[in-house]
Amino acid sequence: MSSVLSPLHVGAWDLSNRVVMAPMTRLRGGRTGTPTSLNATYYAQRASAGLIITEATDISPQAAGYAGAPGIWSAEQVAGWRLVTDAVHERGGKIIVQLWHTGRISHPSLQPDGALPVAPSAIAPKGNAVTWTGPQPFVEPRALRLDEIPGIIHQFEQGARNAREAGFDGVEIHGANGYLIDQFLRDGANHRTDAYGGTPANRARLLFEILDRAVGIWGGDRVALRLSPLGSNSSMSDSDPLTLYHVVAEGLNRFGLAFLEIRVALPEGADMLRMIRKTFRGPLMLNESLTLDAANALIERGEIDLASFARPYIGNPDLVERFAEAAPLAESDKATWYGGEAKGYVDYPSLTLAERAPLESSRQGSGT
Question: Which of 83, 96, 123, 125 would bridge 235 by S-S if both were Cys, CB 3.0 to 4.6 A apart?
Answer without folding.
Answer: 125
